[in-house]
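Handoff note, outgoing to incoming analyst
You'll be picking up this chain. Sequence as last confirmed:
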Amino acid sequence: MNNLGQFLKEYAHQHNARIAYEVKRDFRTKKFSFADIYSLSLKTATFLQAHKLKKGDTVAIWSVNMPEYPILYFACWLLGIVAVPIDMRTTEETLQLFVTTSRCKLGFKSKLLAGSFPDTVTQSYDLEDLLEHVQPLPELDEFPEICPADLAEISFTSGTTGTPKGVLLSHENFLANVNALCQTFPFKAEYRMLSLLPLSHAFEQVVDFLAVFQRGDTVTYLERINQVTIIDALRKHRITSVAIVPQLLQLLMTGIEREIEKKGRKYIWSKLQAIAAFLPRWMRRRIFYQMRQRIGKHLQFFGCGSAPLNNKLAQKWEHTGIEIYEGYGATETTAILTINTPTARRLGSVGKPLPGIHIQLDPITHEIIASGPNISSGYFQDMAKTQQAFCNSWYRTGDIGRFDAEGYLYITGREALRIVLPGGEKVYPEDIENKLNAHPLVREACVVGIKKEEGERVHAAVLTKYPQKLNEIIRQVNQQLSSHEQILAWTAWEHDDFPRTPILKIDRAKVAAILAGHAEKIVVVEVAKNVTLRSLIAQVKKIPISRIKDTDLLATDLALDSLQRVELFSLIEQELGVAIKETGITEQTTVTQLRDLIKNAETVSEALPFHAFNYHPLIVKARVFLQNILVFPLHALFVPLEISGKENLPGLDLPAVFYFNHMGVMDAVCAVRALPIAIRQKLVIAATRALWSDWRQFFVEFWGSGFPFDAKQNIKASLEQTGEFLDNGFSILIAPEGGISQDGTLQPFKSGIGFIATHMHVPVVPIKIDPAYRDIFPPMDEALLENLPKCRKTIWVKIGKPLRFSKQVPVELATKEIQQAMIML
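Most recent structure output, in case you need it:
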């Protein structure tokens, strides 16, 4: 295999119909098979060729992760075009420097990113719209000859200032690193990966893009990455493994421990953590089963890299039965040099070298030096830096390390970060940080050198919940350090986190500047959240932020309707990373009270109260069988049907949303009976939440395959569940009026049906029930006997033509057209 275009063809054909990528957009999950990726990559190559791009040209990509990203990568590589991916957190000024330096004429960016490409990019597109542009095009069938040494990518390293340092990565570099990784780490076909790290970085490209593509695993992408979206994805997408950086690992653990503390279970958590250290993995997973249910019971392990891992943090995860596999590498090594594996693992080390990779330590400085087919040829148009870092196919990493007797590599420091004391002694901050981070009262620490007149001084900034104990913490840690490593100055870091680089490493330069008083202090997080909440409300209501007061009532003063509430809660999840319980919002909730709910919110979305096992394939088959032999014949004794419009159903694109006029008790049975068995076998009914408060719950769930749709207090969770059913191939039956008609006339439709029609990307089909149905089952209350039929009468049921709406159609207009279609039947 000579290039990444051949790689695409080989493994796309090998895995064919398996799902390669999935992404949740709005309330639906879009899935792409390996065959889809191959076809779309060929069409995208046609698109690029139509823009006069040829082998050796460069294309800029500035975007969040999404399936279109790897599709664009593959399209470039099929044509020998060089991809120039740029981290989504890169400033527009730096972006322009990168793009101009690499002479990109075409650019793709995400709609979620503010800013634009420089004028040197003659044409740019939103990456989210890529498939819309390429779907009508033919698949490219002629390709240039691409050799292993041909350039595949220019990867600009994070945090670059001044002249950009672009790492040159060839097709051979990627293929060699991916093959070595797949030989060493046992990827399994059942793995489901969650992509959290930027696809602009070599680590993510190798691990969660190319390696899993070779193995045929499924990758899930998120439009927004925060605690809520991550934990929801871990659970709902049955994620087994995640490639992650230590900061995200800490973020997840902090969220878990915060919820445990809120529930008063901190003592139990601590005791179980201590006990788990002496238990086998299967027992650890058993005793922490409840915690794993919250974050995803299928989760097996995290692959961790890109920054030093706190050993204490790793142990916490290990004790829950979720394993940590730490690795090491750099962009210049096409991501991975060493890795821990299930059969060769040493916590605290970064593992052993991959096959074909050679690592040596400089005999004097102990700097790590590496060679192999994955090593870059150097830096883009920068001979001086290339000669400094690369020599005779060896790359000088700048990291200091040591091997143990069994060949495991340990990173002990970085030459560029070393602190030189007045006496000439050299101190590596990571050594001291490891000791600080191991202390039970320290969450994370950053050690920097603060320049004084006499020279540099070791200064520790410490994140801890116990700042009053910091002096004692430092005293205890100093006892473990040599004389020249002693911490002579320290600060309790008063913010929620340290400043970070684009790949979430601590930005030591900013920390040092703040500690030395040379930079403005970080804005207090709570103040930022207060401003953000008001700005989010202003965004939803399309009013100036100045018009929003803390005392405003959400329901009356701000007039937030149910769908605007959905939009607001979605924005709160996206921007603030918390899930608000809609049931906590009342008519009297103010902006201030909403802010308090945000502070105390959990990181898991609110769920609806129904039993998921009722939709298991075996239960579904049993239900359909019992409906056919018992429920429907019994209903037909009193309600014989005359059905028309069945000719509108053949060729219907399923799943679909069927909606009916609500005429009385059990009228949904009429709509279900009118549908063919092929649709009924995968059909669920959206019923009012009130039915889940008494004896009717079992009847609606088991006999009617219903689920609670709460349009008043839990609209977002209801829409989420609707989308999940549609994703799983279930059609939905719903009554848009929101209640039974009291006089037989059609009541105004709720706007939720218009939202579903425009945001769920499915056809909606009207089913009209004869108003005479009310003579058989008049509207009654919850009493069982009063819901029995009053007479026998033949009624008609009419099925209308399917309607489709794009997301661009206003919800109000869609709702109006959907109601009009019912009226016209």
